[in-house]
Amino acid sequence: MSSLAELQRRFADALCAPEGEMPAFGVAGTAPAPERMDIYRRAIFANYRKAMAATYPTVQRILGDAIFAATVDAYVRAQPSASGDLNDYGDTFGAFLARHPPVEALPCLPDVARLEWAIDEVNRAAEGSLSPERVLEALAAVAPERLPGITLRLAPRCRLVTSDHPIMSIWQGRASAHADDPRAPTNVAADKLAVRRDPDGIVVERMPGGDFAWLAALAAGATLAAAIDAAQQADPAFDLGRTLHAQIGNGTIAAIVE
Amino acid sequence: MPHAAGPLVRPADSAPAADHALRAAAGIGLRSPHIGKVRSERPPIRWLEVHSENFFADGGPALAALDDLRPDYPLSLHGVGMSLGSADPLDRTHLAKLKRLADRVDPVLVSEHLCWSGVDGRHFNDLLPLPYTEEALAHITSRVCEVQDVLGREILVENVSSYLGFAEATIPEWEFVAELALRSGCRLLLDVNNIYVNSINHGFDADRYLGSIPGDKVAEIHLAGFEASGSYLIDTHGAPVAPDVWALFTRAIARFGPRPTLIEWDLDIPPLDILEREAATAQAILDESHVVAR
Fold first, then answer.
1. Which residues touch A250 (CB under 8 Å, ≥6 apart)?
2. A86 CB within 8 Å of a chain B CB
3. A162 to each of A55, A194, B88, how far by Cα in Å?
4. 3-state class (DSSP) for residue B112
5. Three-state secondary structure call for residue B122
6. Sign of the Cα pseudo-torsion (B84, B157, B14, B1, in order)
7. Contact status of A66 with chain B (Cβ, < 8 Å)
8. pLDDT, tens digit, for every residue of B93-129?
9. Is residue B64 one of the residues assigned to a domain?
10. Cross-chain CB nearest to B56 (options A27, A28, A85)
11. CATH code of the domain containing B117
């Protein structure tokens, strides 16, 4: 007699096997086992396609429904869900697309997926920030000689996304992801984007190079002095005062740690 | 059927009364396409149920919507991902998120499914069938107790639809369900549509199933629509409740007395008023049985 664990393992293997295949465990009565197993096989893949389409509408639009579905199926087989919460699934889709030969003609696709995952994460992230007034107060309370050594924390509802492709325009539907499309941009600068959840919804903002380098350094845990260095390397004209006030004002800078 | 939308139950008046407010009320499973309309129009739906996992987020618009609706509607949390029957250890992070949500919204009911969803850390995010054996019964009983201990409250466990049974099974589904409730102290969320679907898929008598369920353990009833596919019924939650299922529901209510009843619709979700109409049909059956019982 098989243990519960063994039966579940065999059921799981049967789910991953192609449609029509006989499961390697006993099915009750005279039931046509492969046919019954197929009901589960179809339901599971349909469920993931639906969930992934909700998270990745732009990737779906670029690929079309049929190729998107086949791509999701391949992803599910390669990287099964590790959580009972379906909302957690799909975090590595961008990385998967970068190594998935059938979509290699679309080099922007992995980054579009990373942008959509960032949006999804930001939508579920904690508020987790002091008000701009409180952040400014905290900043004013730091002794001037200590300022270079402080760190500024980004709010959980903010993410930074960078790409060599114009992913913001593609995401907005204003540029084509297909290189042979006349709407495809011909001279493309890298996109450096901040994704943020505001009270009214998701904001995706294209950042100047210095501002982005400053935020990216802070997000990596750099001190204020090190972040300013990084920003000035990216843009010698980086204006700390303006950026600091803008990023505190829009809630991106959530806390100050001395 | 007559439209039977009664006065809105205000949980502010009845919060400590647990599920008494819902005893004879038909509610609706709230899904994302309807959240905006329910928030803006506050229709007289008697209670709402949501999928717990969709509100596990740390923050954001979904959770804000739930906070907004909570004062006006009794709320039930219905989990789809606890994987109670899995041979894997119980996912403590998942359970902690459920507890955090339950502490936040103070639901009148909390329910999970009698199923498993993954093994060896590989999840399928679906409601997979258990082999109805003594081993599985002992296992899921201990898991239900574990969940109830952590949450500090009783949970309801729901019977699932299934498309195959295991040759290893030694216990009929209805006995397994009843025994789980008796051993673990949980109560039951009896899905009447699932009983009907399984009675066709596995060839048993649905009334025999109902007759084996201890009535005092039934704390909620689910209704939904199925679709036929070849010789099977698929529990799609994508159609109106079938006439045979309404009839089985009526017999269930006659046997158990009125119970909080919920309409679920998850695929090709229609406008809210279709769901309200289904709930009104259920409400009329509950109201009628109420009169008879008195």
1. A196, A198
2. yes
3. 19, 9, 38
4. strand
5. strand
6. positive
7. no
8. 999 999 999 999 999 999 999 999 999 999 999 999 9
9. yes
10. A85
11. 3.20.20.150
Partner residue facing B56 (CB), from A35, A80, A87: A87
CA dihedral B227, B228, B232, B236 (to 10 degrees): -10
Contacts of B164 in chain A (CB under 8 A): 27-28, 31, 33, 36-37, 40
Suggest the residue from B86, B104, B119 to mutate for an interface test with chain A (most A CBs closer than 10 A).
B119
Q: Do A125 and B59 touch (CB under 8 A)?
A: yes
Cβ-proximal residues to B20 (8 Å cutoff; 6+ apart), any chain = B14
User: pLDDT digit string (tens) for B188-232?
Assistant: 999 999 999 999 999 999 999 999 999 999 999 999 999 999 889
Note which residues in 148-187 of chain A have CB less than 8 A from chain B.
Answer: 156-157
Count the domains in chain B.
Answer: 1
**A14: amino acid identity, one letter:** A
Phi, then psi, of B128 in degrees rounded to 5: -95, 150
What pLDDT shows up at residue B108?
Answer: 96
Q: Which two tokens stand for residue B65?
A: 């919507």
B238-245 long-range contacts (CB < 8 A, ≥24 apart) are B238/B265, B238/B266, B238/B267, B238/B268, B240/B274, B240/B278, B241/B193, B241/B278, B241/B281, B241/B282, B242/B193, B242/B196, B244/B196, B245/B192, B245/B193, B245/B196
Q: What is the CATH number of domain A126-258?
A: 3.90.930
Structure tokens at A151: 């760190």
Residues of B in contact with A51 (CB under 8 A): 125
The residues in B 22-61 lying below 8 A from A, measured between CB atoms, are 53-54, 56-61
Cβ B167–A86 below 8 Å, yes or no?
A: no
B1 in any annotated domain = no
Give the pair of three-digit tokens for residue A221.
Answer: 């845990």
Position B2 in a domain: no
Q: Tell me whether A45 touches chain B (CB under 8 Å).
A: no
Q: Which residues of A153-177 are buried (b: 16+ CB within 10 A; e: fewer)?
A: bbbbbbbbbebebbbbbbbeeebbb
Chain B touched by A79 (CB under 8 Å): no
Phi, psi for residue B123 in degrees, rounded to 5: -95, 150
**C-beta of residue B163 within 8 angstroms of C-beta of residue B126:** no
Identify which of B151, B69, B147, B78 has the alpha carbon closest to the alpha carbon of residue B110: B78
* ipTM over the 0.90 cut-off: yes
Q: Which residues from A are below 8 Å from B169, CB to CB?
A: 28
What pLDDT is stored for residue A178 in this prediction? 78
The whole domain housing B101 covers 11-293
3-state secondary structure of B53: helix
- Domain assignment of residue B107, yes or no: yes
CA distances A217 to A12, A135, A190, A222, B92, Å, are 44, 19, 18, 5, 34
- pLDDT bucket at B163, cuts 50 / 70 / 90: very high
In degrees to the nearest 10, what's the CA dihedral of B160, B162, B164, B167?
A: 20
